[in-house]
Structures are given as structure tokens and as C-alpha cells.
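Example record for the data management plan.
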Amino acid sequence: SGPAQAEMYAGLQELGVANGEDLKETLTNCTEPLKAIEQFQTENGVLLPSLQYALPFLDLHGTPRLEFHQSVFDELREKLLERVSAIALEGKVEERYKKLEDLLEKSFSLVKMPSIQPVVMCVMKHLPKVPEKKLKLVMADKDLYKACAVEVKRQIWQDNQALFGDEVSPLLKQYILEKENILFSNDISFLQNFFSPSPKTRRQGEVVQKLTQMIGKNVKLYDMVLQFLRTLFLRTRNVHYCTLRAELLMSLHDLEISEICTVDPCHKFTWCLDACIREKFVDNKRARELQGFLDGVKKGQEQVLGDLSMILCDPFAINTLALSTIRHLQDLVGQDTLPRESPDLLLLLRMLSLGQGAWDMIDSQVFKEPKMEAELITRFLPLLMSFVVDDHTFTVDQKLPSEEKGPIPYPSTIPEAFTKFLQENRIACEIGLYYILHITKQRNKNAFLRLLPALVETFSDLAFSDIFLHLLTGNLTLLGDEFALEEFCTSLFDGFFLTACSRKENVHRHVLRLLLHLHHKVAPAKLESLQKALEPTKQSGEAVKELYNQLTEKLELRKPSPAEVTETPSMELPLPTVPTPASR
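Corresponding structural encoding:
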């Protein structure tokens, strides 16, 4: 156990304290070993006169000296750790840190001695600025680096972006994975979906908490994390990084870390938006506040728009803005007001367009608000309102006594302009998709089937994005009974889902999720053809194969077993005649 032994006594010699090696040497070179041991004990034992008589007493009780020394040592170490923590809080600032620096100087050579290491680490933890030389030694030694407190690591990280990146990177991967797992979860419900958890609940997540702890009050580290998030968002276009950007800031806000919150120019905007996300609605008072922040961006500070756009690109923000937009449009129908006459609606569109333009803005580094297309307000939104009116008209018509001309059919054609807007205008597409989610949630099958064909081709395939499909599959459970109808299934599966399944693995997954949930509602013949159409190919990923196998298993369980099939004829045999009372 040479190396382990050396580790145990590491650094003692430099302090002039005898260690195991010295004892070995003494015993090797002496004539009377017992005397030499006694002398070594006297020289290196606990120097307390009263102990001279107490130790033989312990010997009589069979307590080994090692046990005694160990317990004294542990006791002293505890006292020392308490004292270090106390020094860190008492007296004048310079004096207390001077004491701790002196203590570090004396004890650092023992940092590798497992029994003393906690004390050295404790001293460093309480020093706001550990000497550079010591930090370098800690950084160079894997075990020491691992053992030191996060307060010390922060000092190392702030000048070593690459090392900090190595620590943060697995957390960011974990975060994205967690988000994707929720979107692809097998539990499908219109009640519980991706957007159900409140912002406060989300911030309690493991990754956000760990990052918050790693950053502490260190602005430099906070900036580094934001830089990582921006870079990854640019590289992957993954909007979950935008969510983390907002969650991290609000987590520091919850802890009242003013050192960071006051220097992040997005703090108050994010705080206000966070309250809207909690309510899933932007009310008039908060709308004014948010508008104030946007209008208040001064000349020369436009770069803040890049950060604001990232905060608005968070899917939770987009969801809130889009839901509020749909609600406003319905209100406008009731008030006979046009979209262009509603300042609240125009503000929602302004924020949606800033959020949707985040990637382009950060990529081009051109910090100005995207121009709003007039047609969006003068043509597209009135179109959506006309759909709402169609629904009202149809409902009223149904209630009127029918004349000879028979019931009025539901309008089945879609205005060409609607389809064109969904293909060419990002904001129109986002609002259009949310309108379709809205009618599905209302169980409005007619409106759903009318607008569904417009989803096959949308702006950058937004209708096949995970968030939309996650919400759509959840809302479709409300139309469960319609799945028994051939016409409904053909429109939904053949007309929409299957058009993208072969080129988009995620769509394949979402259809399988939906069928796992609703297979018992689908007409058997349709189910069979769907099972064929959805069979995984060689290129399919593990997730698709796994879902397909689960579906196949469920369908196998539903089929009547061969035994049941062969026994059925026996039921058709004539029943034994039982004499009726009359024939007696």
C-alpha cells in the first residue's frame, strides 16, 4: 500500500511533522525498537500533561491508541471547520480574509491528505479570491478539482470558459432531452400537455436549479451561459434554448440575486411576460407594460432586441401570445371591430413577430424589429374572423325551422388566400395553426375538416413541428368518436399525417402515439390499412420501431383468439327441448 500510504501523509514532511516514513527509518536504524517507539510517541503525541495518566487507563480498557487519536483528531477537525466558518463572518473584511489566507498558506501543502483536505477546502470556500497559484494547482489535479466547493469552482470557471463549457454542456443536453420526452410522451390528453406546468414549477427542474447554483451571483458566468445558449440556438434552431434563457433569469429572480437581475436588460420584460405565461393570457395592463419596454429601447441599445426576441421565441411565450390573439379575434367578431382598430391585437402581433424573428436577428446581428406585413392585418386576420362568423351562422341555421330547401350545408371550401398565407407568412401560419387547435378543442369537427387540407403545406413545415403535433394529438382525443367514421379517418390520416410520415420521422412517431391512445375507436378496416402504412422501414429510428411494436402488441390483444373462433358454431346447435307447462 505504498502510494496509498504516501497519499495519507502527503505534505507532512514540508511542515516538519514526522510521518510513517520517519518512524520506519527510526526503527530500521535503532538497536532498541521498543524504546524508539516510546520516544516517537512522546515526541509526536498530544502534548497534554494530564494525558500521561489517562492513556494507560485507556490501555487497560483495551482501547487502541489509534482509536483514541482518531477521535481526538476528528473532534479537533470539527472545531477547526467551525472556527474557519466563524472567521469568515467576523471582524473587518480585510482582517478576516487575511487570517484565512494565512491559514490557507499554512495548510495547503496538506490538501492531498484525506483527513485534512476538508479543512483546506473549507478555507478556500470562504475566500472570495483564492490566490491564482492555488487555483491552478487545484485545476491541474482532477481529484482536487472534483473535491472543491462550487464557490471555488466558480473562481476557476470564470477564467476558463472551455472548462465551464464542459461542465454545462451535459446539463444543456439533458434539458433538451427532457423537453423532447414530454413532447413525445405516450400520455396523450387535452387536459395535460407540454404547456400545462406553471413557470414556477418548471424553474424547479433539475437543470435550471443546477445552473442557478453553478452561477451563484457571478455575472461573468451568467453571461457565459447566455452565450452558450445563443450559440446553440443559432447552431440548432432549437427553441427550447430560448425557454432555458428565460427560466434561468427568472430562477435568479426568485432567489432575489440582484447582482445579476439588475444588469440583465431583459429582467423586467421577462418578469412581466412570465406573469402573462402563468395566466396563459396577456391582459390589457400587462400589454401596456410590455409595450413600454419595447418602445423604450433607446438608440444605441438596439442589441437588447436580440435578447428580447430570444425571450419571446420561447415556445411558452409564443403559446401565450397566440392563445391571446385567438381570444382577441373572437372578441372583435362580437364587437364588430376590425383587427387594425385594436391596439392590443397589434401589440400581440408585434411581439409574435419579434419572437419568430429571433433566429434571423441573432444570426444577421441586425437589431431592428421585423416589419409587420399590412396584409396580415388587413386580409389574413379578417379571414380568420370570417371562419368564426361561418360557425356562428351555421349554428344559428341549424336551430331555425327547416324550410323545403333542406338544411344548409357547412361551408367546405377554403379561401385560396388562407392556404397561401399559411405557406408564405410565418406569423399567419402560427396564428392559423392555433386557430385549428382552438376549433379542435371545441370539438368543432366541421371546421376542422374544412381547414385541415391547408396544413399539408405550411411555412417551413410548421404544421409538422413537434409542438403543434403534440397539442393537436392531445386535442384530437376530444373527437375520439369521429375515428369510427371512414371519411374522418381518411381526411386526417391519408389527407394529412401520411403525407409527411415517410419524410419526417417525428410525424411517424406522433401518429403512432395517437393510435396507441385511440386504436380502439378506429374502424377495424381502417386500422388494418394504417398498420400497413405505418410499418417502420430500414431507415426508421429506434423510437418509431418501439412505438410500432407497442401498437402491434395492443392490436394482437384485441383480436379474438383462434379458440374462441372455433367454439362459436357450437352455440348454433338446437337447444335441448324443455317441455313447456302446456304440453304436460
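Summary line stored alongside the record: The radius of gyration is 36 Å.
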